[in-house]
User: Fold these one by one.
Assistant:
Number 1:
Amino acid sequence: MAVTEEEFYDVRRVAVLPMGFCFPGLDAKGGDLPPRRECAPLWRARVLAAMPRVELILLVGQYSQRWHARTAGIQHGNLTERVADWRGMLDATGDEGPRMLPLPHPSWRNNTWLKANPWFAAELLPWLQTEIRRLIR
């Protein structure tokens, strides 16, 4: 995002919303389990409705991408296809509310994905950083 720590934690500028307001527990290897299915339908639309000035939602990881793509009527396959069509997703969601940008989860596990998809750092990230700077002014 290319923001300072102060900007990131300024609640007037940035909101971090999990897919579920409950910890789903750990799997056998110690990783987080997927968000519980009942959580997002209970609260997500209400919380977003309470924030009418949101212009851009960063869909970090597969769970948020699937949820929001489905609610926007957008169909995409795997992570690479969703993120590769980032411009299409922005266009598809721009008129009906906040624009949505699919992103891979920022994890060491995705280093291989990042190396295999250099367009992400070359095209998407510079656009995102410029757009974030414009929005948080």
Number 2:
Amino acid sequence: MLTAAIHGFLLAMPLIVPLGAQNVFVFNQGALQSKFIRTMPVVITAGLSDTLLISFAVMGVSVVVLSVFWLKSLLLTVGILFLLFMGWSTWRSKPNIGQGGAAQGEAGENEVNQAFSAKKQVLFAASVSLLNPHAIMDTVGVIGTSSLKYEGLDKLAFTLACIFVSWFWFFTLAIAGRFMGALDKTGRIMLIVNKVSALVMWGAAIYIGMALF
């Protein structure tokens, strides 16, 4: 079991840690939300989405879904639309972190411009997680394939280790974003981060489009 767990941990790290639309979104919300507790919707949704993908990959369900052409095309199309919209929303956002944002009585308008609501966090986090062909292929092609060598408790240990890496990383990203938001008194750094984040999301949309067409 220990060997399988270590294998899962080391395998998941390079798959989950690299910069992507999902990681960028979690980091941004960590920096833009007025309190860390308000990042929980995006962290939990991203964690649950990865848990679902990893579990499906280990069980072989993802392979079946991806083999249905119309279903795969539908998922990719929806993913493109979500990423384009999210990139546009992120590009237009104007953080006002240094002046206290929603914490200084401008909760209504500022929260819309600076940080996503819980519902929006859940929707967008789920879209960039479950509708990202790169993430799906990573879980199916790498984690799912690697899990075939294990059975019983060893397979469970392998799976849980992969899932642990995902959850740990999302919490780490949210905390790092929170520190960034606290240090960036003027909001200028986060404005640049938002622009870069939007470009990453649009790049992911283009990548999905290439996979689709």
Number 3:
Amino acid sequence: MELMGPVHYMGANGSGSITKLASNQLWAIHATAMGEALVMAVKSGVDLSRAWEALKIGASESWCMHHDAPSVFAGHYDPSFTLDLCQKDLTLIVEACDDAGTLAPATRLVAG
């Protein structure tokens, strides 16, 4: 397992799955927000590359801004995580939020 990256013990049975769902929850929200922000900037007349350079630092910095945006700009869309898989995870995430008694309004908007 350590060949794939750091191993973190998360606790009782199922805690690792919940942690993975939380990671995917954050990614889905970040990717949605990033797309909306960049589209708004470009449609408002800001050059895409300049907007991205400014937004990938400071408060808006994220793994998504550094990893996903350059791939999209280059026309490379990773087919390993399809929209069907993303929707499946979002459904599981909303179920986990329901089980935990959390409102998660941003997640529910992204899950649509």
